[in-house]
Amino acid sequence: MPEKTLPHETTTPEAVSTALKSGAGKPRSLGQDAWRELRGSWLFWASGVLLILFIVMAAFPSLFTDVDPRQADLRGHYLAPPNWSHIFEGDWFGYNGQGQSVYARTVHGARASIIVGVCVTLAVTVVGGFVGMLAGYFGGWVDALLSRLTDIFFGIPLLLGALTLLQAFTHRTAWTVSLGLATFGWMQIARVMRGAVITQKQADFVTAARALGAGTGRILLRHILPNVIGPVIVVATIALGGYISTEATLSYLGIGLQDPVVSWGVDISAAQSQLRDAPHVLLVPASFLSLTVLAFILLGDAVRDALDPKLR
Predict the structure, then answer these.
(1) How far apart are CA 68 and CA 71, in angstroms?
(2) pLDDT of res. 16
(3) What angle do CA 249, 252, 254 make, to 5 degrees?
(4) What is the pLDDT of residue 20?
(5) CATH classification of 37-311, choosing from 3.40.50.20, 1.10.3720.10, 2.30.330.10, 3.50.50.60?
């Protein structure tokens, strides 16, 4: 009696060819695994929606309001309370002590605050990543010199260092504030990069590339960097929200952005004396600032969980 073949045991050449063409059996890359984890994370989607909203607000404020944020009317709008019946006409969040629309200033203030946060994050990632990569790969006196330099800057608090440096500028813009924060904010990235490079430079694929005659630049950029960039991205994403709040703190202290620049920090600083009479003048920009910082922190947590296999 002939032996029966179960359906799931039948393997034809056509089935094998179809499986190979569809990519079945191929190992997924780190990026594919991370995206698969992110798609199922509510933290990623919640923070992503908030960040897209704020980024669109910063890039295209005219989509949200056509009111000039610097237009003042002290007679009719001095500290006027919110008027919920006119949502997009500038009355929604009331007016400040200059008779300016709080809603319009909040919308337009997103641009300066987010620009500072993004610019500082890019700068500290490049500088800190470069310093950490050199220290971790070469070791020896290079590592000792760069590590001691990092320790020196680490001993200076970010807020205090930026406050001291920005005192030298009589006219402070988003670019000068970014420079001040980036000067004292790259050390954590450098340490994270250094530790990751020290671990990866001992790997077999790096030894094989060196034996085949690959130069230092090729080894660093083609073999080591793709395998150490994950932790750096996580730290940079979480730190971005902190840089936005630090910019607001500097503006609150009168050392950050200045008029006529419209930013959340500037408005919070101007509203501190009006908190009792018109709390909405302070609460509205402070709430938007808090939501933005929270969104970046949540996004960083989601990316960290996706890139770290031990947290899955």
Answers:
(1) 5
(2) 43
(3) 115
(4) 43
(5) 1.10.3720.10
